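Example record

The entry below shows one chain as it appears in the dataset: sequence first, then structure tokens.
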Amino acid sequence: MEITKPTLVVDLKIAEQNIKRMAEKFTQKGIQFRPHFKTHQSHFIGELYRKFGITKCTVSSVGMASYFAKNEWTDITIAFPANLLEIKEMNALAEQIQLQILVDSLEKVKILSEGISPKISLFIEIDTGYFRSGILWEELTQIEEVIRAIEAVPQFAFVGFLSHTGNTYSQPKVEDVLSLFDTSRRKMLDLKHYFIRDYQNLILSLGDTPAASLAIEFDGVDEMRPGNFVFYDVMQYLLGACKVENIAVAVYCPVVAKYPKRNQIVIYGGGVHLSKEKLKWKGKDIFGLVSIPDEQGFGRLISGAYVESLSQEHGLINMPSTEIDQINLGDLLAIYPIHSCMTVDLNIEMLSLDGSVISKYRTY
């Protein structure tokens, strides 16, 4: 595998192990597993899921849904507020596949009803405390009005309530992740109990990788939609949702400058390759952790080394004095990203460890 510039590399063996572990977890619990594909955005990676009986997926855009529909994914949820400017595209998709979209207001249902012609399924997006999008879970009257509006449209089918507990990503401890998810799950379960008599087939769809990885209790949940778990990243590692050996992607970056007196190394690999996602680690803002790749994979994580700043093309690594003399100009370092979803989105393609090119959807 010859790499001369910043390159996103995936360890397919680790990715497949991550998929297998999550698929088995939810199969054993009798929960529909509908993984989110926005993390990998790749037909090739999508095929790994089929090995474990996965036939339904989640995406984050109409364009991404079209990309996977072309590869025979025939049951897709777009887990993003329905964009009314893409009704034409949604119509085309709903003619081909079983499509689920999200609504959160009477106004949106009305406008969609005037533009959507094929049969389509609608989730009501519920906000359990993330305060991003969706109807607040306690707004029962509003929720009931939206359900009735959906039911009044012949081509629409109300399928249930969908929520994303994205605030688990910002929790400082495992127990905080579990507590937050359980609180959200109970709110959703209260909704289900309130409406189940009149809508006996409604489902609860939840999804976030920290909870999916760490939680044991999913009582009342019908479907889980985690996505990041396929690759994991530094954020999940420091949260305790995975081990470093579960991280399946890294950006290989050439060393272009060394400054031993200040314990710094410059890599060719900046914000346009890694994203500028950051988090606190040992009291410092970091943009990635650093490993020395070997013939088997991402190799040895360098204790104490981290990406401390990013420009457009530059990455500045703080390297312990005990390690810096072992790094030479022209060496490759493997940078574990803070958030793999963002990093993958920035890169036009991936390489496997054997050097094979893995194509992917290009968002922009």
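Notes for this example: The chain has a mean pLDDT of 96. The longest strand covers residues 297-310.
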